[in-house]
From TrEMBL:
Belongs to the DNA repair enzymes AP/ExoA family. Its EC number is 3.1.11.2. Transmembrane segments: none annotated. It comes from Oryzicola mucosus. The record marks 221 as: Important for catalytic activity. This is Exodeoxyribonuclease III. Keywords: Hydrolase, Magnesium, Manganese, Metal-binding. The record marks 251 as: Interaction with DNA substrate. Residues 4-251 form the Endonuclease/exonuclease/phosphatase domain. Its cofactor is Mg(2+); Mn(2+).
Amino acid sequence: MKIVTWNINGIKARIENLLIWLKESDPDIVCLQEIKSVDEQFPRLEIEALGYNVETHGQKGFNGVAILSKLPFDEVNRGLPGDDSDEQARFIEGVFSTEKGVLRVVSLYLPNGNPLGTEKFPYKLSWMARLEAWAKERLALEEPLVLAGDYNVIPEAADARFPQQWVNDALFQPETRQAFRRLEHLGFTEALRMASDSPEIYTFWDYQAGAWQKNNGIRIDHLMLSPEAADRFSSISVEKHVRAWEKPSDHVPVAVELAFVPA
DNA sequence: ATGGTAGCCACGCTA
């Protein structure tokens, strides 16, 4: 089963690219971030025509996440618990059935946190604390769970082409990286870390200053696997060629293959 | 120290 995370940076601007990519890549489950659309305006018909079920958690103009799945949804949960005053659409969980039982998949868009010195950075850290609390509860279920998304976290210096450019950025702050490690230490395996040591694997290249042409990238899109999901890990790939398409997102799809068969 | 680009949606905000 192929599960993919992709920050698409605007579903309306990217629908043609998405449809071409779905046909080419043939994923089973797709976690989208930054759909930048309300649910009513999400182009679900074109996607459903390719055989996908569509669940969205949208917002006007900014943020917004979605899950596309060839498997039917048994359950959908919108919003990260822990703060009823948080109105930003950054989290959706889908529950599916496989021949081995339940499979949970989350599409998350973790707050960027810039600029430092504003309320945005503490919001990022508190969101990460809420995610950790939620994940801890879910891990206790001992089920296969995939936390896929744009984490807006550069875990290590090796995950940036020019790490010194990021030292004053929220994506690379010590507190940010610590919170990311705390999540891992609950018992998750970061899927790309299961691949052989591969430096210079990036998932985001800024639109500005020729970042793509210079390969000035960072790795910020991650798939966290619970032990029950990691047990079935087969492979991981970054679909980098998509960044060279016309009108690309600034992020590319990251795909993990897990040995599950739909129920 | 700034500006470089893109999406959304109508002007500035977010990234």
